[in-house]
Amino acid sequence: MSGIPSTLVTGSIAYLVAAVVLIGIVQAARGVGKLSKDDAGTGNVVVIIAVIAMWLFWLCAWMHQWHPLIQPIYEG
């Protein structure tokens, strides 16, 4: 094993950047007055949970395709 694949690192960083941007949007909405402090806190929790869930879904899909256990059978 040569370590963590670069695709996995790149994808994880992309989800981390997305989380930071979305939390920034929630904080900006709070700063402008569109959200109250409580609503911004709820928004932060929703963003964090959603990004973690999407990242886990992407990670599972990526891992299943990395080293497949079942090989295709070609007849011909």
Automatic annotation (TrEMBL):
Domain of life from the UniProt record: Eukaryota
Molecular functions (GO terms): proton-transporting ATPase activity, rotational mechanism
GO cellular component: proton-transporting V-type ATPase, V0 domain
Source organism: Nitzschia inconspicua
Membrane topology: Multi-pass membrane protein
Cross-referenced InterPro entries: ATPase_V0-cplx_e1/e2_su
Protein name from the UniProt record: ATP synthase subunit H
Keyword field contains Membrane: yes
Family, similarity comment: Belongs to the V-ATPase e1/e2 subunit family.
Cross-referenced Pfam families: ATP_synt_H
Localization of this protein: Membrane
Membrane-traversing stretches: 12-33, 45-64
Alphabetical UniProt keywords: Hydrogen ion transport, Ion transport, Membrane, Transmembrane, Transmembrane helix, Transport
